[in-house]
Specification:
This protein is an alpha/beta fold and 482 residues long. It contains eleven helices and 37 strands. A hairpin with a 2-residue loop joins strand 2 and strand 3.
């Protein structure tokens, strides 16, 4: 979107974020399926810059590791004990000693800015020939943000931080978003003159703006029309607001791509998820992580998918699934639980109150209801009766169950692994299968039924059951005597 030889991006990710009141560094808090810094890295990469530099300090190892995972090749530099955004940019410039183009400064806690907005900022900066162009926004409540102070000619005079602002300055509604484009050479020169004589005792990057104006090197502000996307995340309230804004944007994008979202307000779709045209998303559904949903599938209502693969024309209803694969035309739910490595084949069925873990259910096979299937290989066109349990754990290790093609089982079967059921075999109701069943065999585990006459009257005297049993026995005896 911009020149690959004239732009470097600096991302400020060194702050502690005390208002988050969290053990997690602020820039690692997730929104829309990515940490805050991840969104900013994506936006920076979309500008195709010559180099990206991320400045870290608080929880340095955790932040640096996340940056390296999300954007290999990005340069990570450390801010020293001197606080402030100005000092952070100085550290970044030390890694850009051979660079003399434009330096775009972004904040890792401003996740919603889109590449097109920043490309427009760069165009404004380059067209105006200024030493710095900053991004600003007008908001109803500017509390916590630096104010953009303009002179009588409406030019930018300076930026005043909240704690250093006079009452008149604090009343200004135009805020500094914390995004700047500098020409590298004057930025280096003026940073050397910035001190820490302010309420925070910090080296402010904003002070460079005033110094550049005094040096008559040109200062401008580009007012964004999307104030909500320009706001930073400083506490949990703002984190949730950013999530709402991002989710609304994401849902709308997929709607325009041909996805039916019945109730956008109750639907959450991570930016990392992928949906095909003609997918239908019903209310109160979450499509999270790296989930992919193929054309014609229907998801929901009341469903959560994380890192799943859903095939064409599949249906997942009122269910929870993680790291699972649902094949084309398969049905899952209602009230199913697919745990990691669950795979439902084409046209397969996982029904009501069924849990599946680390198992393959073959094409056309059905586990309709009230079952647990763990560490199991099920062939094609199998039907497991209600209450099927694969007992995969012997208190020491997990074992696998293998069920062949065209197997039909009775209700309330327990398969004690390791065990293999051959192709075409059948099992009787209530069977506990401890041994392999040959192909085509019928497996039964039947004990003779024993009835102990008069047990209830003898052992539960005075109960309602004993009373009705006695009456029934008397009635039967009278009938037999007649």
């Amino acid at each position: 979107m911009t020149s690959t030889t004239e732009l470097a991006v600096v991302i400020l990710a060194a702050g502690q974020g005390t208002r988050m009141r969290s053990r997690t560094p602020k820039v690692l808090h997730p929104v829309g399926g990515r940490p805050l810094v991840g969104h900013v890295l994506d936006t920076a990469a979309a500008l195709d810059p010559h180099r990206i530099v991320v400045v870290v300090r608080h929880e340095r190892e955790r932040v640096a590791a996340t940056v390296a995972e999300l954007a290999p090749g990005v340069v990570v530099v450390d801010q020293d004990e001197v606080p402030g955004t100005g000092r952070a940019v100085e550290a970044a410039l030390d890694a850009l000693t051979d660079f003399d183009g434009d330096v775009l400064v972004l904040s890792a806690d401003v996740p919603l800015l889109e590449p097109a907005t920043l490309a427009g900022l760069l165009d404004t900066h380059r067209g105006g020939g200024t030493a710095v162009t900053l991004l600003s926004a007008r908001v109803d409540d500017p509390t916590g943000y630096g104010r953009v102070i303009r002179d009588d000619s409406d030019a930018v005079a300076r930026i005043v931080e909240q704690k250093d602002a006079s009452p008149d300055e604090a009343a200004v509604g135009e805020i500094n978003v914390g995004v700047y484009v500098f020409r590298a050479a004057p930025l280096r020169d003026q940073l050397a003159h910035v001190g820490t004589a302010n309420a925070q005792g910090e080296k402010y990057l904003t002070d460079v703006v005033g110094l550049l104006r005094e040096a008559r090197l040109g200062v401008a502000a580009s007012l964004t029309s999307d104030a909500s996307a320009a706001l930073g995340v400083n506490d949990r309230v703002q984190l949730s607001q950013a999530g709402l804004t991002l989710n609304a944007r994401t849902v709308r994008r997929w709607q325009l791509e041909g996805v039916t979202v019945v109730d956008p307000a109750s639907t959450w779709i991570d930016v990392t998820a992928t949906l095909a045209p003609d997918v239908t998303i019903l209310p109160n559904t979450h499509v999270l992580g790296a989930t992919t949903v193929a054309a014609g599938a229907t998801i929901g209502p009341d469903t959560s998918l994380r890192d799943c693969e859903i095939g064409e024309d599949a249906t997942v209803t009122r269910s929870d699934a993680t790291l699972a694969v649902v094949g084309p035309g398969a049905t899952v739910g209602p009230f199913s639980y697919l745990r990691p490595n669950a795979r439902v084949g084409e046209g397969g069925k996982v029904g009501t109150f069924v849990e599946v873990k680390n198992s393959v259910i073959g094409a056309g096979s059905k586990v309709p209801h009230l079952s647990y299937i763990g560490d199991t290989e099920i062939g094609e066109r199998v039907n497991l009766g209600a209450g099927a349990i694969t007992a995969n754990y012997d208190d020491i290790a997990k074992h696998r169950t293998v069920i062949g093609d065209e197997v039909h089982t009775g209700s309330h079967n327990v398969f004690v692994a390791p065990v293999t059921i051959g192709d075409g075999a059948k099992t009787g109701a209530g069977a506990v299968i401890r041994k392999d069943v040959p192909a085509g065999a019928l497996a039964l585990s039947v004990a003779p039924q024993r009835n102990i006459e008069g047990w209830v009257e003898k052992n539960r005297p005075g109960t309602g059951a004993a009373d009705v049993a006695a009456r029934a026995r008397s009635t039967q005896e009278a009938a037999d005597g007649s």
